[in-house]
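Q: I have 112 residues here and want to know how they pack in 3D. Can you give me a structure?
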Amino acid sequence: MVNTAIEKYRKQLRMVTSVSMDESYNDYGNHFVDDILSNIAANDLMHLIHKLPPQYKMVFNLYEFEGLKHKEIAELLDISEGSSKSNLSRARASLQEAVKTSVDSVYGNVAK
């Protein structure tokens, strides 16, 4: 009877799904971010975009709104393709931080 109980216990242990804390947080965090972004007014987001430094704002607008590729942006602005990619990445990071700061000021520090 003891062996049967131990065997049943071991089978139950194998069936337990383990999830790392990082995966759990990222899943929750992504859903949270999606919910927050769906509640941000378009005007608020446009205001944050207008606050970007001019070069970041230009590349961001051309890439995201106009649909241009980095090669086209580089030719248009007379910069390298790498600069275009870097400026877009920095613009996105800056916007993410601005949105987080904006959300934190409204909802408290829950977006961490």
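Q: Anything worth noting?
A: The longest helix spans residues 81-107. The CA atoms of residues 97 and 103 lie 10 Å apart.
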